[in-house]
Amino acid sequence: MKKNLIIMLMILPLMVLSYDVALLITGEIGGNPIYEMMVDGAKRASRDFGFNLKVVEGGYNPAKWEPSLIALASTGSYDLIVTFTEGMPKSVEKAAKMFPKQKFALIDGIAPLSENVYSLGFKDEEMAYLAGYFAGLITTSNLPGANRELKVGLISGDIYPAMIDRMKPAYEKGAKSVNQAIEVLFSVAGSWSDPGKGSELAQLQFSQGADIIFLVAGGTGIGAIQKARELKKYVIGVDSNIISIAPGVILACVLKRADDAIYSVLKRAYEGKLPFGNYERWGIEENVIDFTLDENYFTQFVSENIAEKMRQIFNSLKNGEIDPLEK
């Protein structure tokens, strides 16, 4: 009897300390650099802190994401449910009202304030400003693929608030900070997984005089990269370093350290330090927005003069000397 009691007392703290997290991926992991990073960061946190992690892929049909989120919450099995992107704030708000005791975290999006919700948004405008400034330097350079027309491009997979309110204006400001005469061509594919459409839009922008395009288009951007290679033009990647796919065509990438971001979120949640009822926005200062300045192919195909100007702009953003959205 005494022995059994001792065993129970030893097991009880382990039961109390059990912590369960569910990630609802709004899409699929394979082939999506951001989600691959998110899952890697979450798994690393799970290993380091010993909590249980369940990953659920929501698929590419947005109509299924909200029901999946509500279904996870209805089980009452998780201390924290994490989901992603600016497509989910209203769904998180709805689920949070339905299950007020359930804790939610939205990453890469900002949900309406609620006592059981934490949101982490990224300063996408910093990424876009860096891309725009770099595009401006390229279009005014003497690189082989740069023509005399001061035009740069931006292709988006779809229309969404961060693109229209922050990324597009910041990209334009970055480019015009190099030369006010630079014109930005903007196209929307209407899909994140249509390389054919990406190729078509890139062909259109290149034919209109753009010599470099910033791709925020997911798998659709693959077609644009192929078209740039064919026409000996340039592109800028987003979120992860994909330069090795097409060195000399993809000249640079703006980076989002999503793995480090989710690691921090889950660490604080596990330690009871995540500020539910609030939101945060992280960028260069928090070391989650970066640029491929030290990438081998970048230094191979981009002049030191351009690289040095990018270092200066990067540091100016980090020090708060530039507001990417200030008009």
Write structural notes for this entry.
The structure is a single chain. α4 links the parallel β3 and β4. Helices cover 44% and strands 20% of the residues. The protein starts with a helix and ends in a 9-residue tail after the last helix. The protein has 327 residues and is α/β, with parallel strands linked by helices. The protein folds into two domains: 146 residues, Response regulator (Rossmann fold), CATH 3.40.50; 163 residues, 3-Layer(aba) Sandwich (Rossmann fold). Strands 2-1-3-4-5-11 form a six-stranded parallel sheet, sandwiched between helices. It is a lipid-anchor. Belongs to the BMP lipoprotein family. One of its GO terms (cellular component) is plasma membrane. It is found in: Cell membrane. Pfam families: Bmp.
Q: On the 0-100 scale, what is the average pLDDT?
A: 93
Order of helices and strands: HEHEHEHEEHEHEHEHEEHEEHH
Strand order of the largest sheet: 2-1-3-4-5-11
Percentage of helical residues? 40-55%
The total number of structural domains is 2
How would a crystallographer describe the biggest sheet? 6 strands, parallel
Second CATH tier, the architecture of the largest domain: 3-Layer(aba) Sandwich
CATH homologous superfamily classification of the largest domain? Response regulator
Q: Can you count the beta strands?
A: 12
Radius of gyration: 22 Å
How would you classify the helix and strand content by structural class?
A: alpha/beta
Class of the largest domain, according to the CATH hierarchy?
Alpha Beta
SS summary, helix count: 11
Membrane topology: Lipid-anchor
Pfam families: Bmp (PF02608)
Domain ABC transporter substrate-binding protein PnrA-like: 21-312
Family: Belongs to the BMP lipoprotein family.
